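User: Structure please.
Assistant: Input sequence and predicted structure:
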Amino acid sequence: MKNRLFSSLLKYIVLAVILIFLLFPIYWVLITSFKSNMEAYRFPPSFFPTDPTLDAYIKLFEVNNEFFVYYKNNFIVSGVTALITTVLAIFSGYALSRFRFRWHKWAVALLLSSQMFPVVSRMISLYDLLGDINLINTMEGLILALIADMLPFTVLLMVSFFDAVPNAIEEAAFIDGANRSQILFQIVTPLVKPGMLAVGLYAFLATWDDYLHAATLIQTDSLRTLSAGVALRYLGELSYDWSLINTISIIGTVPMVALFFFFQKYMVKGLVAGAVKG
């Protein structure tokens, strides 16, 4: 009995230490946003603001109009990317799940192998390709690049959800006279709504945090998204306004926290399904 109690106590202590380790950076960003810039540079650092202030939030909303341009661009790029990625993943995932064509295994292998290479390894060829069709420094080009980056994982994720739908349901619909499009949109798609939502949320959250594509493909300041805009405008060469930067970080994470808070069960279900069935 004592050994079991000690084991449970040790388990909770380890979990508490891990939780503190993971949440401490978020806590530090939050309290720094309420410090003055002088206090943010103080050494040794203070773990609680000695004189809490909202100056950084006031400065952000009253002075830094560029931030809201980046914020708006981030919503546009993330939303459009998530929508198009979800639609393409539905069609591609259904095709790979239900049809066994000649190159089926090679297509799946190609999607899997594309996840083995880092994003930076394909940026030069991607830049040349978009340059040939005059889409460098355009929001459309950035969206196309992000869709291409999101598709391999999201397609495989949708395949796992379509595989979970029994073929007998579609065969019964065929007997009743339904065609392939009716089966997909009226019968199968409603059954994989959690998967569709998981794919859309994944694409939105991954695109929201993107820096490399935006910093490489966009040069005009008014077209930059949040990550690239903040890095290029608010991070100086000699000194940083840490209070303002941490305030921007807090405001920038609000949509992601809200989405994950309300839809976390779909995210977890989607990622688990992709892990065990893909």
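The radius of gyration is 23 Å.
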